[in-house]
Specification:
BirA Bifunctional Protein, domain 2, about 20% strand, RNA-binding, about 425 residues, alpha+beta, 3-stranded antiparallel beta sheet
Length: about 425
RNA sequence: GGAGAGAUGGCAGAGUGGUCGAUUGCGGCGGUCUUGAAAACCGUUGUACCGAGAGGUACCGGGGGUUCGAAUCCCUCUCUCUCCGCCA
């Protein structure tokens, strides 16, 4: 979330930048400024009254100690009026404060100056492309048909056990999942990321910390008995490792990676978007997270983009990198690069990674700070994350792009992870 | 699921109504000593908000209450630990 003081000091900037995200912030900013001003007045007045009260209490204590009981008692009589005033001021403060908090979470993050203006996906800017478009054999099939033909993924069985969007991977289908997870984790480790295994369920505070709550509540599976949420991405538990933490500036950037299953309700999805592996309720993903110094967070972003690029290149998949326009960006992001791979039989681009710099937006909620050498005041850090990578669509692209008339070839880098198997028949 | 204990600063651990943001130890930082280091000794070491500043306010798991005054008393919630039961 945005810092209130920042909004108060830079109202025009906030309104102008959020317009790029096609968000009209005028009314909210105006309210925030008025409430913020009033809150400070109330706070100052309340604290002045409290200071007087504290002083008086000390004096009463002294009077009792010195045996001046009647003076003490008359002093006590003066306290009730002050107490009432404090009570009134505090309740006014609380009302304003919660109104401010509610407004504060309505404002999206400011997009970076690099963000292109635009309405939706069609206005995203392609910043790089790579890989070679495969030439498919005649009668090439989409991945859901290949999955059935080679008995790799059983969608119907998943429906029986759980419901749509929970496929069962079998044989080489299961092994290729495991191969990809291991490959991605190994690559991340070689690139300086610390591997962690986080919980798959998080509490309310964590879901709030990364911005899933309050507004994306409907996208998460919720266990109401224990009030826990199934994670939609490892970003949530991993980033929350750093909630309420002050780190040493010299330790930045802190690079963390985790594999997790991810759970998304995907309410409102339908049609060809949800066919096969294109959109699932449960899927596997390896996530990379960085905690960065504000001066260096865009270096970290570039580092992460280059890293994800190296993964799709090693897998030999045709890809393109998009810089998302204002209208297509997420609520919490300042700058996002999406990676898409070409799924040759479906003849469409599939999003397999989203790499974002959140700047201080998440860290403000998380109270994630860093401290420079010496006794400097802690400052809000920057957070970034990216998928590296999400599995289902990678699997879809591999199945489709690597299909031949007598089997599905295994990308070279995965062969050692599949016990030397070079082709799935 | 049953029974009990507990939640205090980076960590350990005092503090049962007033001058307590909080004794002390460890750790951290700075210094003395040393060729250097260790040891020893000395000093220092929470966060947020308000304020131009001086300074003020709040925070001892969360919320509420009693009181002139609460880390301390009362109520309530949450969480953690131990033992028993069940179990991968």
């Amino acid at each position: 979330m945005l810092n209130l003081k920042f909004i108060q000091e830079n109202p025009e900037l906030v309104i102008e930048r959020l317009a790029v995200k096609r968000f009209d912030a005028c009314a909210i900013v105006e309210k925030v400024i008025a409430l913020y001003k009033r809150r400070n007045e109330v706070q100052t007045e309340a604290e002045t009254q409290k200071a007087g009260m504290n002083q008086l209490s000390k004096e009463i204590g002294q009077l009792f100690k010195n045996g001046k009981v009647s003076e003490a008692n008359s002093a006590k009589e003066r306290t009730s009026e002050i107490k009432d005033q404090i009570k009134n001021l505090e309740s006014e403060f609380d009302v304003i404060d919660s109104e401010l908090a509610q407004l504060q979470v309505l404002l999206p993050n400011l997009p970076s100056p690099l963000v292109p203006v635009g309405k939706g996906a069609e206005d995203n800017v392609i910043v790089a492309t790579g890989g070679e478009m495969p030439v498919l054999p005649k009668g090439a099939k989409p991945h859901w048909e290949l999955a059935a033909q080679y008995d790799l993924i059983d969608f119907e069985l998943g429906v029986k056990i759980t419901g749509a969007g929970f496929p069962v991977y079998k044989g080489f289908g299961a092994r290729i999942q495991r191969a990809l997870i291991n490959f991605f984790l190994d690559q991340a480790r070689e690139n300086g990321y610390l591997e962690v295994q986080p919980p798959y369920m998080v509490n309310e505070a964590s879901a709030f910390g990364t911005g899933q709550l309050p507004d994306k509540e409907g996208q998460m599976y919720h266990d109401s008995v224990d009030n826990l949420y199934l994670i939609p991405t490892a970003e949530v538990p991993v980033t929350n490792i750093f909630r309420d933490v002050i780190v040493d500036a010299k330790d930045l950037p802190i690079k963390t990676t985790a594999y997790s299953a991810c759970f998304r309700r995907e309410a409102g999805s339908y049609g060809k978007d949800v066919r096969g592996l294109n959109r699932l309720h449960q899927f596997d993903k390896v996530e990379v997270v960085q905690i960065a110094h504000p001066d260096k967070s865009y270096d970290s972003l570039n580092d992460m983009v280059a890293y994800v690029q190296s993964l799709v290149e090693k897998l030999g998949l045709p890809y393109r990198i998009l810089r998302l326009c204002g209208g297509d960006m997420g609520f919490t992001s300042a700058l996002t690069y999406d990676f898409e791979v070409w799924s040759a039989a479906q003849e469409r681009w599939l999003e397999v990674s989203s790499v974002s710099n959140f700047e201080s937006f998440q860290a403000t909620r998380l109270k994630l700070r860093y401290r420079e050498e010496g006794r400097a005041k802690p400052q809000i850090a920057h957070t970034l994350n990216g998928s590296a990578l999400a599995l289902p669509r990678i699997v879809a692209a591999i199945l489709e792009n690597y299909q031949t008339t007598d089997g599905i070839r295994v990308p070279k880098v995965l062969v050692p992870y599949l016990g030397g198997c070079e082709i799935i028949r």
